[in-house]
Fold this protein.
Amino acid sequence: MSQYKSELLKTLEERGFIKQISKPEELDKRALEGPITGYIGFDGTADSLHVGSLTMIMVLRIMQKTGHRPIALMGGGTSMVGDPSFKATDRPMLTIDDINKNLVGIKSIFAQFLEFGDENNPNDPLAVMVNNADWLCDLNYMEFLRDYGVHFSVNRMLSFDSVKLRMDRDQHLSFLEFNYMILQGYDFLELSRRYNCDLQIGGSDQWGNIINGVELTRRVDRKEVFALTTPLLETASGQKMGKSEGNAVWLNEAKLPSYDYWQYWRNTEDADVGRFLRMFTELPIAEIEKLEKAEGAALNDVKKLLATEVTKLARGEEAALKAAETARITFETAGLSADLPTIEVAKTELEAGLGLLSALVNAGFASSNGEARRHIKGGAAKINDKQISDERLILTPDHLNDQNVIKLSIGKKKHILIKPV
């Protein structure tokens, strides 16, 4: 039985999203009294978020579905600094133009998960998306240091695990990165003032940074606000979420086709199925508890359900069902679906001869010719469902099938069509 009374915290707990809360009883009481506003920050270091960010997005969605107000904070300002948390080296520096272009791609993802209101109306009850560049880029440095720097203890900041790790390894930590903690703390204060924000949420590696904001708001504005962190998510085998064969599993359709996104979830490890059903679908808990008992072939069906439900949220129901049907045709009937991911090559290039190694790299099945060779030597490479052992094979129009495409495969689950244009 849940220790919480509010629907928000009960739902977050039963779905596996709670690691730490600064004052759990007080936050629970506050959530019972009426809608609260909570935010999560997302830095603009790429033009799409990947599956590693899905935990945070789902928490914002749960906030909204339980009657509260989520804020998606875009880090247009903090992305110019970079979060040093548990990073071995400085983050690459991005220009303002780079960051703004990235934020455009990121914003499109949230529309799938949240219902947005008027970001210019601080009293709008719907979700809002704001950019911390709006206040960080206009700060007067001397005034900022005088008014807020006094509230941050360097001794305490040096004690954070993320900082100690870099220092213990004698790895460089720039003063620029060190400022990130102060800026994140100031974000909370600013959102509290602008939107009456009560809660900041982040991964458990962000606990120290979030507490900075809690304490800054208490000291400067005499207001009690709260911190909540989620567990850092890894697969049962210890792989970091959001990576597949060394590549990011992007949430944005433009960077990863829905079929590939569906396949990522279909390939979930057995031990992770129940946990992922809780966190990344909206199936009822009672139904999930029954599905967790599945074994053998039945478990494979549950994985397909997981893949379809997760893809529905990120890409829409039509895309999810289409991806599931493409997989069924490809795997269960040994057929060839026209909806498999496709890469186009110029007819002249194919006529001149396209090396198999290059084709595997271009398809994203290998990061280098060396990795492509290892796939071939291991017997994983197939052309039109026929195993290929010759790494020097040259693809030509003679390899086109009846549908005028070449089906390139690695193992049983990765397929792509090469289409001459």
Observations:
- The chain is about 45% helix and 15% strand.
- The longest strand covers residues 37-43.
